[in-house]
Each structure stands twice: as structure tokens, then as C-alpha cells.
Backbone:
């Protein structure tokens, strides 16, 4: 009988320690997500890209890094970014799923307003080069994002966290990128579709 009790205590202890390891991995994954969001808010995109796996938006050849004179636009894009973790689940030793509310500026609205303003400007008769028009578009988009009247949007997303040799990384699939950018990814896709690209 004593042997069975000892065995039961050992099994319970192992189960307890295994659950502690799982909790630690979940906490580390959540910490990485929070660090990525904090780096984006601070405008430290190099640091943020170290926490994010698969982000075409942040990599050195990506969309945001290739905008000429776009530094202010990028700052405005992430100025009101926040993340609230709703739940976390360890899938296996290398994967954690985090359900989170991502709140940021509704860039879809700001983008659509910018496109309208640019089309109006293009048809106003003002003669501008393509470079001048691109620069004006960045300026107008930045103003729309920075406006005190700019609406925010909250998207609830499942964020997959992947354990790599460098530590935990945010798997920045298209849904996550769209949530973090407040709908910019889908707005750009919609514009491309409407222009036949």
C-alpha cells in the first residue's frame, strides 16, 4: 500500500512539474508577443523584426522599410497599437496559440480616405511627377493616420507563436499582419483587386 502511495505522489509531482514547464513556455511566448508590440510602438522596427517570423512588412526589404520619407508614416501607423491577451494554449513544445485583441488605428479607413484625396489631387489639373505624387500620398496618409479623429479598430486574432533556436517568435501570417496594421494589408489587396493587379 505504501508503494502505491509513493508511486501516486511521484506521478502527481511529475504531472505538476510538467504543467509548470508548460506554463513557463506560455509565459515566454506571451512575453515575446508583448515585446514585439512594445518595439513596434516605440518605432524600433529592427528589434520588432527579431520577434516576428515571416513579416514581409517589417523585414529589411519589406513594404514599410522601402517607403521613401516614410518614417513618420510608420510611426503614425503603430502609435496607438495595443494588445490584450485573452487566452493562451500550449499546442506542443514548439508552438503556443495566443488569442488576443489587437487594437490600432483603422488604417483601412485612413487608406481609403488617402486614395480619395490622391484621386482628387490627380484630377485637379495640378501637374505633379510620379515621385511628387508618391511623396504627397505618404504625406496625406500620415496626416490621416495621425489625426485625432482617426478611428481605432480591434481585431481578435489567434496568434501562433513558434519556438526557434533564437527563442519564441510571432508567426506573422497575413491575418496577424492585417490586425497589427489595422487593416492595411487587406486595404492594399482590395485596391490592387479593384485596379486589376
Residues:
Amino acid at each position: 500500500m505504501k508503494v502505491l502511495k509513493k508511486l501516486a505522489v511521484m506521478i502527481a509531482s511529475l504531472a505538476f512539474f510538467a504543467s509548470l514547464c508548460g506554463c513557463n513556455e506560455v509565459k515566454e511566448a506571451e512575453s515575446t508577443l508583448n515585446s514585439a508590440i512594445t518595439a513596434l510602438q516605440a518605432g524600433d522596427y529592427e528589434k520588432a523584426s527579431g520577434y516576428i517570423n515571416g513579416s514581409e512588412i517589417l523585414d529589411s526589404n519589406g513594404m514599410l522599410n522601402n517607403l521613401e520619407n516614410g518614417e513618420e508614416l510608420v510611426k503614425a501607423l503603430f502609435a496607438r497599437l495595443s494588445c490584450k491577451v485573452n487566452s493562451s494554449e500550449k499546442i506542443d513544445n514548439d508552438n503556443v496559440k495566443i488569442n488576443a485583441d489587437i487594437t490600432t488605428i483603422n488604417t483601412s479607413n485612413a487608406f481609403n480616405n488617402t486614395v480619395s484625396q490622391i484621386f482628387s489631387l490627380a484630377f485637379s489639373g495640378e501637374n505633379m511627377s510620379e515621385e511628387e505624387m508618391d511623396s504627397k500620398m505618404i504625406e496625406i496618409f500620415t496626416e490621416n493616420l495621425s489625426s485625432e479623429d482617426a478611428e481605432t479598430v480591434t481585431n481578435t486574432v489567434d496568434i501562433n507563436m513558434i519556438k526557434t533556436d533564437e527563442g519564441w517568435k510571432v508567426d506573422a501570417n497575413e491575418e496577424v499582419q492585417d490586425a497589427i496594421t489595422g487593416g492595411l494589408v487587406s486595404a492594399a489587396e482590395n485596391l490592387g483587386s479593384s485596379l486589376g493587379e
